[in-house]
Write a structure and sequence with these properties.
The complex is a heterodimer of chains A (247) and B (496).
Chain A lengths: L1 H7 L7 E14 L2 E14 L3 E5 L6 H8 L7 E6 L2 E2 L5 H10 L1 E4 L11 H11 L4 H14 L15 H13 L5 E5 L7 H18 L2 E6 L2 H7 L2 E6 L2 E7 L6
Parallel strand pairs in A: 3-8, 3-9, 6-7, 7-8
Antiparallel strand pairs in A: 1-2, 1-4, 4-5, 9-10
Chain B lengths: L2 H14 L1 H38 L5 E5 L7 H5 L11 H13 L11 H8 L4 E7 L1 E8 L2 E10 L14 E2 L9 E5 H9 L16 E8 L10 E7 L2 E16 L14 E4 H10 L5 H6 L27 E6 L5 H10 L3 E4 L1 H43 L1 H9 L4 H44 L12 H27 L3 H6 L2
Parallel strand pairs in B: 4-10, 6-9
Antiparallel strand pairs in B: 1-11, 1-12, 2-11, 3-4, 3-7, 5-9, 6-10, 7-9, 8-9
Helix pairs in contact in B: 1-12, 2-10, 2-12, 2-13, 10-13, 12-13
Classes of the chains: A alpha/beta (247), B alpha+beta (496).
Chain lengths: 247, 496
């Protein structure tokens, strides 16, 4: 009976998107070992907006890098859907970055010599999508972000908010189910920050993207997230529903 | 990632640092230019030498000599005309004795018509003909000089040195009352009198020259032939002055390959046979100019016993044409097996080719030094480029670029520099070669030589050089590309 109940659940709710167990990441710095992550176990549901809160050095960025497939865990498991990132080769990790996640950085990380369109098309290029098709898709994404007239501009010619929207377009280009945002508003003023956060919220609510927001700003995290996991010294110290979370 | 995207991205990167790309490609082009120039010099010299040898028609021929006179090809190469006439009689007997003493595999292997038949029956033999040398005096206007005329069969028409006649044409038939002159001989004839200017070798075509020789019998009456008879003891000697039409002028190699079978004055074979049957070899001047075969018939001393109609003609030299040059060694061995002395230049050709391979390797090694230096330039440029673009590489990896994608971009960048440098290098190498060739040929011509291409850039060298440039660039670029591919994305993203 319980099984049949499980089947009746809506597809985008309460389906485990991502699960870590006893995830550890240790760095060797000279003679001492830095335990950036020291046994993190957590679960993220599909369609969830999760806030990862913590001070600098708490391990939140390290966790994000592991989720994004930018780094290898020292031990533990990291399952995204049914794949274990901890067991992936370098080539498989690059496939994971290409297909499964879109990463949004504090410093935008756009290629300064490329136009907005080319930056967005970059990830599609690595996915082997033909030029005409990816340029069309990139234009469409930029227009949907309100950057219709900015397609041929280079990052230098764009404001911070515009650059971050180009970066978000790029993260969406290969249609990943998971967006990882690492302090996406850290370099933006409060008005632009709100615009960006509203955009992420829309992507979560309208498009059903699972979003993990890494921030040190507790108010921001509480305002936009469904649930907040707080990290300290590489371990989870709290995992609770966000204060302002709707429903 | 699609290859065209990799190329596109790589070229974009190169365009972004035009100066650096240009300088690096120039480095490669200098390396390739020196390599191409050196190899093309080797190829050019080889073409000149082998081409001349091939043109002389010596590689499809085997020269057959009577057993006792063969003393290695050296005598035929270097000593033609150099040996004293006085030495000839005595050593010949000595040599005969030596041949007998050494066992004499074929004691009666004289080069007569039977020998021709015997050799002609061998496999791979196309034809056999005797080479007859007739000492005569050539007169034209005020010019008078002793020359050893040589016979040439009608089958040689259009072959060897007669492939392209400088002027005129080959003989009409085997008994044609005509001769062919070598270009150098023709020049001697036309330039002998400094007072007569403006006479060109080509003006000699159709003109008559006079051959003067001593004969033991009166010639068949012919127009313009003067026969003045004197008696020496019991013998009558006819001093013949016969007119020969100049049919053609050909260019012969100055190298002095006796096997090439050319002389300044060539006569149709049948005519030369008739002449040599009766001619009395009294001119020591002529003997001096003759090579091994110039000695009179094997029967003995000249002037005393040359019979009016010899019962069995013997020849000093036979030329055997083989079906193809590769068979010449085999035919040579078979002829030796019959008891004759024989040599061909196939060994010389093989040795020459081997020598040229070594020369080419040496030249390309010298040429490669500059290329080795410029390949370090590629490494340097690429490493610099990676340092500058570390963050960009990090971004590419973060959005899904694999190690292989990044490596591919850098390898294409390196090989593009290689293509650029290779094409420019071949062009520079060709251009510099042309300039040196021009200067060298001016000097050669001023020294009386024939102009030729000292630098030859065949298509394989063009493609090979560009290909080599690409390979060297790829090797030089492989370390930086690997380094870029292995960059840790997190580290790279932190880089600024």
């Amino acid at each position: 009976m319980i099984r049949s109940v499980n089947f009746q659940r809506p597809q985008n709710r309460f389906v485990t998107h991502l699960q870590t167990s006893d995830l550890r990441k240790h760095y060797v710095m000279g003679t001492s070992v830095v335990r950036a992550l020291d046994g993190v176990s957590m679960t993220v549901e599909q369609g969830e907006f999760l806030g990862l809160l913590g001070t600098s050095g708490s391990g939140k960025s390290t966790l994000l890098n592991l989720l994004g497939g930018l780094d290898h865990a020292t031990s533990g498991t990291l399952r995204i859907f049914d794949q274990d990132l901890a067991k992936m080769s370098r080539a498989e990790l690059s496939m994971h970055r290409r297909k499964n996640v879109g990463i949004i950085f504090q410093s935008f990380n756009l290629i300064s010599t490329m136009t907005a369109t080319d930056n967005v098309a970059l990830s599609m290029m690595f996915a082997g999508i033909p030029r005409a098709e990816r340029e069309r898709e990139a234009s469409r994404l930029l227009e949907s972000m309100g950057l219709g007239g900015r397609q041929k501009h280079r990052p230098k010619e764009l404001s911070g908010g515009e650059q971050q929207r180009v970066a978000i377009s790029r993260a969406l280009a290969n249609k990943p189910a998971l967006l990882l945002a690492d302090e996406p508003t850290g370099n933006l003023d409060s008005k632009t920050s709100k615009e960006i956060m509203d955009l992420l919220k829309a992507l979560n609510e309208r498009d059903g993207k699972t979003i993990i927001l890494v921030t040190h700003d507790a108010a921001l995290a509480h305002k936009y997230s469904h649930r907040i996991i707080t990290l300290m010294d590489g371990t989870v110290v709290s995992d609770a529903k966000a204060a302002d979370a709707q429903a | 990632m699609i290859l065209s995207d990799t190329v596109h991205l790589a070229l974009r990167n190169l365009r972004q640092s035009k100066l650096r790309t240009t300088l690096t490609a120039m480095g490669v082009s200098i390396g390739i230019a020196s390599l191409t120039g050196m190899v093309s010099l080797g190829v050019g010299i080889q073409d000149q030498v082998v081409g001349r040898l091939m043109k002389s028609g010596v590689f499809d021929s085997v020269t057959v000599l009577p057993p006792q006179t063969f003393r290695g090809s050296g005598g035929l190469f270097g000593r033609a005309g150099g040996g004293g006439a006085g030495r000839r009689g005595a050593p010949q007997n000595q040599r005969g004795g030596l041949a007998d003493a050494s066992g004499g595999s074929a004691p009666s292997s004289t080069l007569d018509d039977n020998a021709i038949k015997q050799i002609a029956a061998l496999p791979e033999v196309k034809e056999v003909y005797p080479v007859i040398r007739v000492p005569v005096e050539v007169r034209y206007d005020l010019f008078a000089e002793g020359v050893v005329a040589m016979s040439v069969p009608m089958t040689s028409k259009g072959e060897g040195p007669y492939q392209t006649m400088s002027f005129g044409s080959f003989f009409d038939n085997d008994t044609d009352n005509a001769c062919m002159l070598s270009l150098d001989m023709a020049k001697q004839l036309t330039e002998h009198d400094p007072n007569v200017a403006g006479l060109e070798p080509k003006d000699l075509i159709g003109k008559d020259i006079t051959l003067v020789y001593a004969s033991s019998s009166a010639p068949a009456p012919a127009p313009g032939t003067i026969d003045s008879t004197i008696s020496v003891g019991s013998m009558q000697i006819h001093r013949i002055e016969a007119k020969y039409r100049v049919a053609g002028i050909f260019e012969r190699e100055q190298g002095g390959f006796a096997g090439g079978g050319t002389s300044g004055l060539m006569l149709p074979l049948a005519r030369a046979k008739d002449l040599s049957a009766t001619i009395i070899n009294v001119s020591s001047q002529s003997m001096l100019r003759g090579s091994v075969g110039a000695a009179p018939s094997a029967s003995g001393a000249p002037a005393s016993s040359a019979p009016p109609t010899p019962p069995a003609r013997t020849y000093q030299t036979l030329t055997v044409k083989v079906a193809h040059p590769q068979a010449s060694q085999e035919v040579e061995d078979k002829i030796k097996g019959l008891g004759y002395s024989a040599f061909s230049l196939s060994d010389a050709l093989t040795a020459a080719k081997r020598g040229f391979i070594i020369l080419d390797i040496l030249l390309s090694l010298i040429g490669s030094i500059a290329l080795a230096v410029s390949s370090l330039g590629i490494v340097n440029t690429m490493v610099m480029s990676i340092l500058e673009r570390t963050r960009e590489i990090g971004i590419m990896k973060a959005v899904g670029g694999s190690d292989a994608d990044v490596r591919g971009i850098f390898l294409v960048e390196a090989s593009s520099i290689g293509i650029l440098g290779g094409v420019a290098g071949v062009a520079i190498g060709w251009f510099v070669g042309r300039i040196i060739n021009f200067g060298a040929n001016r000097y050669i011509v001023s020294q009386g030589g024939t102009a030729g291409d000292l630098f030859s850039i065949p298509l394989w060298l063009v493609l090979g050089s560009i290909g080599f440039a690409i390979v060297v660039s790829l090797i030089a670029g492989s370390y930086p590309a690997r380094r870029a591919a292995r960059l840790d994305p997190i580290q790279a993203l932190r880089h600024d």
